[in-house]
Amino acid sequence: MSALEDNDLFSDESIVFADEMDEEIPEKESSQYWKVMIVDDEDEVHTVTRMVLEDFKFEGRGLLFVSAYSGEEAKKLIMDHLDCSLILLDVVMESPNAGLEVVKHIRDVMNNKFVRIILRTGQPGQAPEREIITRYDINDYKLKSMLTEQSLFTTVTSAIRSFRDINIIEHNRQGLEQILKSSVSLFRLQSLKQFANGALIQLSSLLGLDNQSVFLHASGFTAAQDEGELKIIAASGKFKDCLNQPLEESIPDNIRDLLDDAANAQDGIISNTDYAGHFISRNGSKNLLYMGGYNQQLSDMDKNMIRIFTSNVAIALDNIYLNREVVDTQKEVVITLGEVVETRSKETANHVRRVAEYSYQLALMSGMDEYASELIRLASPMHDVGKIGIPDTILNKPGKLTKEEFEVIKTHTLIGYDILKHSDREIMRAAANIALEHHERWNGKGYPQLLKGEDIHIFGRITGLLDVFDALSYKRVYKEAWPLEKILDLIKAERGEHFDPTLVDLFFTHLDVFLAIKDAYPEESESKM
User: Fold this and answer.
1) How many Å separate Cα 131 from the centre of its chain?
2) How far is 373 from 378, CA to CA, in rounded Å?
3) Which residue has the higher pLDDT, 338 or 69?
4) Angle, helices 458-473/350-365, rounded to nearest 10 degrees
C-alpha cells in the first residue's frame, strides 16, 4: 500500500471529482491569482491538490495551477512561469533525488530566491528531513501521510504569505535603490531643462510607467520668458507638442485644476491616475511637476517613494538655482572685466559679448557638448585681458604701429595668460588658454608660441576666428570698419592659413546665426540709428 492510499486527503473517495478539476484558469487572468506549481509523478496528487485548494483565497486572489510530472519538466516549466509563488514538489520521481535536483536548479542556476518550495514526500527514508532542511534551500518539508486537507490549506497560506512579504521587501528595496540612482542623476550640475527631462524619466522609471507627463517652470525669473508666466520646459507622451508653450494654452482644465490644488496645498497630490507636485525654490521660483494617465493601483510604498523622490527634486532645484546664481555672477564678473579692458583700449564693450555668443554657437556647431560650449562662452570674454598691461600710448595709437610697438602688443597674450593661469577654476583655466592662443595661426605663423594646426587648443582656434570677424566689423582707433563682403573674402582667403578650415566651413554654413548675434548686440552708434 502506498503512502497515498494511507492518506485521507488522497483517498479514492476524493478522486470522483477529478474530471471537474482538469480545466486550468486562463493564463491571461494570471495577475488575479497566486500561481502554484505542482510537481509530482502521481496523477492523483495533482487532481486532489487542485480539488482541495479549489476555493482557496488569500487577499482576494485564488490559485492558478501549473502541473509538471517529472523533475526535468519542472525545470523547463519554471522558466515559463517566473512569477510562480509556490512549488509543491515531490522528491522521488524519475530518480530518487529528482525533486532535490529541481531545488538546486531553481536556487543555484536560476538564482530564484523568491518562489517558496515545499517538499512533499511519501518515502521519508529516501530524503531524511533534517538532512534536507540543512542542505537545501527549501521552505518546508511535509510527509504526504501527514497532509490533511486543513494542514495543506495552512501550509499553502503560510507559504504564499511569505512569498508576498518577501516580494514587498524586494519591491521596496528596488524602489529605494532606484531613488538613490535617480537622486544621483538629479543632483548632477545641469541646466534646468536637462533637469526637468531627467526628473520625468526618473519618475517614470521609479514607477515603471509609460506615462503622459510634463514639467512646468515659472518663467518670470528669466529674461528669455514673459514675467510670471508658466511655460512647459520638458514633456513626454501626449504633451510633447506643448514644449515651450504657456501652461494656460496647453493643459486641459482638469489637469490645471489638479496643479492648482497642489499649489494651494504647497505639496504633492498623488492618486492612482495622476501625480501633481508643487515646488518653490529658495529664490522664489515656482515649479510644477505633473504625471498622469498611468491608471494603476499605487501601494502606500509607491506613494512614499514618490514623496521621497520629489523631496529630492525640490532639493535639486534649489541646487540648480544656486549654481545658476554662481555661474551668472561669474559671467557678470568676466564680462565686466572684459568690457573694462575693451573700454580702456577705446574699443566697444559689446565686442566681448558678441565674441562670447559667437564662440558658444561655433562650439556647438563643431560638435562640442553643452557643457564645453558654455565654458567657452564664459571664458572667451577674457581673451584680451592682457591688454591691461600694454601702455596707452601703444594701445590707443591711431596710426600704424612700428615693429617694436607691435612686439609690445603681442605680449598681451602672455600677460593675460600669467594673470589667469594661477586659478584652479575651470573657467579661468579655459580663459588662460584662450588668452594665450587666440592669436596663433593654423599655418604656424601666429604668436606667441608659433603653434600649428590642432596643436592650438580648439578654444583658441574658435575665439581667434570670431575675434577677427568682429574686430574687422567695427571701427577701431587704428582703422575704419570693413564692409561685410570684404571681411568674408578675407576669412575665405585665410582658410587653412590663419584659420582652422573646418571652423571656417561651419562659420559660412551658419553665417545667418552669426549675423543675427551681430544684430542683437549693436554698437551704441548703430542702436541710435
Assistant:
1) 49
2) 9
3) 69
4) 130
**Rounded to 10 degrees, what is the CA torsion of 167, 312, 256, 238?**
-60
Q: Which helix (H) or strand (E) holds 292?
A: strand 286-292
Instruction: List C-alpha distances in Å: 439 to 23, 26, 435, 460, 463.
Output: 85, 77, 8, 8, 9
DSSP symbol at 22: -
- From the candidates 57, 387, 397, 445, give the one annotated as an active-site residue: 387
Region of residue 244 (left: phi > 0; alpha: psi -120 to 50; beta: else): left
Complete domains list, the chain, with CATH: 3-170 (3.40.50.2300), 187-321 (3.30.450.40), 345-527 (1.10.3210.10)
Q: Which residue is associated with the grid cell 493601483?
A: 297
Whole-number Å distance between alpha carbons of 305 and 326: 32
Amino acid at 334: V
Taking residues 352-365, report their average pLDDT: 94
Output the nine-digit C-alpha cell for 236. 513626454
User: Which is it for the CA torsion 503, 509, 513, 519, positive or negative?
Assistant: positive
Q: What distance in Å separates the CA atoms of residue 145 and residue 121, rounded to the nearest whole number? A: 9
Rg (CA), the chain: 37
Which of 288, 287, 259, 274 is CA-nearest to residue 207? 274
Whether 75 sits among the annotated catalytic residues: the reply is no
Other Cβ atoms less than 10 A from the Cβ of 111: the count is 8
Angle between helices 350-365 and 370-379 (to 10 degrees): 160
Which of 370, 195, 184, 178 lies closest to 287, judged by CA? 195
Mean pLDDT over all residues of the chain? 78
DSSP line for 430-466: HHHHHHHHTT--TTS--SSS---GGGS-HHHHHHHHH
Q: What is the pLDDT of residues 295-325, one digit of tens each?
A: 666 777 677 777 777 777 666 666 666 666 6
**pLDDT tens for each residue of 504-527:** 999 999 999 999 999 998 876 554
Nearest Cα residue to 62 out of 89, 85, 39, 96: 85
Q: Are 119 and 142 in contact (CB under 8 A)?
A: yes
Residue linked to cell 529630492: 312
